[in-house]
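Exercise 7. Predict the structure of Apolipoprotein A-IV from Junco hyemalis.
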Amino acid sequence: MAPKAAALVLVLLAISGSRADVNPDEVASVIWKYFTELGSNAKDTAEQLHQSELSKQLNTLLKSNLQSVSAYAEDLQQRLEPFAMELQAKLAQDSQRLKEQIQRELQELQAKLAPYADQVHQQIGTNIRQLQARMGPYAEELRSQVDRSAGELRQALEPYAAELRERLQDNAESVQAALSPYAERLQRQIDGGVEGVKQRLSPVADELKAQVEQSVAELRRGLSPYAQEVRDGLERQLQSLSAQMERAAEELRARLAASSEELRAQLSPLARELREAASGDAESLRQRLQPLAQQLEQRLGQSLETFRQQAAPFGETFGQQLVQRLEEMRSKLDSGAAGVEDHLELLEKEVRDKVAAFLSTAAPPQN
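Solution. The predicted structure, encoded as tokens:
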């Protein structure tokens, strides 16, 4: 087996040989990046690739979700080798073929749609306006939920700053004894608050993704009367548009989760610094705690405001991305010229479908 395919087998064996509750989209995303790394860095050995930063990210993802099923590994390895070779071939061989095919289809599509160019242009314009109108309320809802989440978390955490100031009035021994439990409570409140933020924002992201699917379906219906003779070419363009929009929706979800985790990373040092202060001698405890007590409320406010400013506009940005994708499709239908990476979107979709299908059949036997 070629070094690149051998490296891929190692990665896929880690995935499927211990499959439990794995999200196929997450795994496919990591594998797609892994494929593109392989394609652009053929000089690396399998071992070097396996130790790459990308592979480490994959291993981190898997270790957090998987359980070992070593008895199943031998059978899986036999099934993984042809699977890995097929996926590698898709990237290595189909790329140029897809690029040429899409360009031919676009030119044919443009020629067939030429008599209806104005209607098609207007139909996509109508879809753009409908999408903008539909996204507006959801973007506002996301901004509102971010603001509400930040405000509620601030209300939950501010009493801790007041409590710390009050505790400084006690004797040093009492403060030191109470400080570690206090820091633990603060950390639990931070963790619970961040998880609450995620839970509050996730349904809005789901709704935005649902609007994407509805928008593509409406565009498909609107264009179908003009494309009876080039149905396959139009469908490929719509699939590409759908893939772009769905990826934008997943990126939105990932950005919201990342912003929430960044908020946790900014707040957690407060609890850690308090635990560290408690570990010193009692005599200098007040000296160590005084600056923390003065800064705690301010640092809480700054972290929450940073989160709010960062996450609140995500809905508007998402809507702008979707409109841009529709405008790009309209431009392609007008000109008959494919985008530089149109074929990669379809190739990635094939990889995702195959990964999902493989994982659905690679589950370990039930005990």
